[in-house]
Every structure is written in structure tokens, then in C-alpha cells.
Specification:
The protein is mainly α and 271 residues long. It has one domain. The protein is 79% helix and 0% strand. The two termini are 40 Å apart.
Length: 271
């Protein structure tokens, strides 16, 4: 478990570094140079014609520092969600495999638990860490030691609840990013409005270009932050739904393919 946690931390750090490098390189090489060219053209047209209405350019909308930070956080969150999505899909693939060789009419007695656990224990180490194999092995071990179907069912239920809480807690950092992105956009709005107020004397003299650019920066920051936050929250909801379904389907699989076949012999040793 510690090794898994450490590998996830390393993945998150490397993903953040890679996202920062790639996004910043795109900003330096593409977005900001094009935004400057378009801004200069629009400023010249505004000075020549006061009725000129500039078109909204994607480069100008994305060019400021706050938007860059929002996009970095967005793709960083996506990289973490992609890792969890791949793991969830791999775990779901186990639901289509026959991990328990139990035929209709067969009963699993407490002394048989070890034999039924062997195929699951023979899985690769990485797959044994998945939820379904852990549920099966935990249930068989509990039944083999206690001989109680109720205790086995309760143990699997507790494991299912604990796994659901763990998966939910692992999404905390992504939820924090989804909350932080609009806050960063609001900071950009405040910065833009503050810059516009600092140029109010130019507007009084008839030069409104500086105020217009600063207000545009403020509104663009909010626009990008809200857009990325809405998209991130939608994707996060879908991932959380997939994880919840994985836990529920794994528990149902165990109930149908393990609990339903458990049998406790009577006092006379007969089934």
C-alpha cells in the first residue's frame, strides 16, 4: 500500500512538471506572440475608427497569467483522473473473468475455502491488489476461519464501504483544484479591474484603449476559469460515478458468485 501511495505521488509530481513545461512552452511560442500581434492590430484600428468593434480572439482570451495557471491546473487534474480511469477500467475487466470456479448446485464449505482461493491467489500481484480479488480472498478467508455466512457477508460489506470511502478521499485533491480554478480566475478579475482603475485618468482624457484592455483581461480570466471548472467538475462527476459503480458491481459479483454458494454443515456434519 505504501508503494502504491508513493508511486501515485511520484506520478502526480511528474505530471505537474510535464504539464507546466508543455503549457508554458505553448504560451511562449504560440499564444502570447499571436495575442500581441492581434492586440496591436485591434488597437490601431480602434485609434483610427472609434466605432470599430474588435473580434474576440482565442489568443487574447487565453494570454494572461491567470488563464495559464487555470489551464495548467486543469490538465494536471485531467492527468490524475486519467490514471484513476485506467485503473478503474482494468478493475472492471476482472468482472468479466471467471475468478471463482463454482458450478450450479455446488456448495462451498468452510474447509473448501482455501482451495477456491488458490486461483485468485495465482493472479499477478498487481491484479491481486484490485478490489474484486481482495473481496473474494477476504470473504473466503473469513468464511474459512469463522464458518459463518453472516460474518463473511458483513466483512465483504465493510470492505466495500471502506473502498468507497478510500476512492472518494483520493479525489479530494482534484476537487480542490476544481475549487481553486475559479478562485484564480477571480484573482485575475480583481487584477484587471485594479489595472483599469489605475488608468482611469487616461479614459477621462479620451484614451480608453488601456482601460478596455484591462477590463478585457478581467473578464477573460473569469470566463476561462469558469469554463474549465465546469468541464472539470463534469468529468470528475463521471469518474466518481464509475468508481461507485465499480464498488457496487464488485460487491454484487461477490454476493452472486461467492456468498450464494456458501454452506455451513449442520451439527451432524451433513449439509
Amino acid at each position: 500500500m505504501k508503494q502504491k501511495y508513493l508511486s501515485e505521488v511520484i506520478y502526480q509530481l511528474f505530471a505537474l512538471i510535464i504539464v507546466i513545461i508543455v503549457v508554458h512552452a505553448i504560451y511562449v511560442a504560440v499564444i502570447r506572440p499571436n495575442a500581441e500581434i492581434i492586440q496591436e492590430q485591434q488597437t490601431a484600428m480602434q485609434e483610427a475608427d472609434e466605432t470599430f468593434v474588435p473580434d474576440r480572439s482565442v489568443y487574447i482570451i487565453l494570454r494572461d497569467m491567470e488563464q495559464e495557471i487555470c489551464i495548467i491546473l486543469f490538465f494536471w487534474a485531467l492527468s490524475m483522473m486519467a490514471m484513476k480511469l485506467v485503473r478503474t477500467m482494468r478493475e472492471r475487466a476482472l468482472l468479466d473473468r471467471t475468478l471463482l470456479q463454482v458450478s450450479e448446485g455446488t456448495s462451498i464449505l468452510p474447509e473448501d475455502a482455501r482451495n477456491y482461493a488458490r486461483p485468485v491467489q495465482a493472479l499477478p500481484q498487481q491484479e491481486r491488489r484490485y478490489l474484486l480479488p481482495r473481496m473474494i480472498l477476504t470473504g473466503l478467508h473469513r468464511f474459512g476461519t469463522t464458518g459463518s455466512i453472516q460474518a463473511t457477508s458483513s466483512t465483504i460489506k465493510d470492505l466495500s464501504d471502506g473502498e468507497a470511502e478510500r476512492l472518494e478521499s483520493e479525489l479530494t485533491i482534484i476537487r480542490y483544484i476544481a475549487w481553486a480554478i475559479p478562485s484564480i480566475g477571480f484573482l485575475g478579475t480583481v487584477r484587471g479591474i485594479g489595472t483599469a482603475l489605475g488608468q482611469a485618468h487616461q479614459a477621462v482624457q479620451g484614451d480608453i484603449v488601456g482601460v478596455t484592455v484591462s477590463l478585457g483581461m478581467a473578464f477573460n480570466s473569469t470566463f476561462v476559469a469558469l469554463l474549465t471548472s465546469i468541464l472539470l467538475m463534469f468529468l470528475l462527476h463521471q469518474l466518481s460515478l464509475m468508481q461507485d459503480r465499480l464498488v457496487l458491481d464488485s460487491q454484487n459479483y461477490t454476493d452472486e458468485n461467492l456468498i450464494a454458494y456458501l454452506q455451513v454443515p449442520d451439527r451432524d456434519g451433513e449439509e
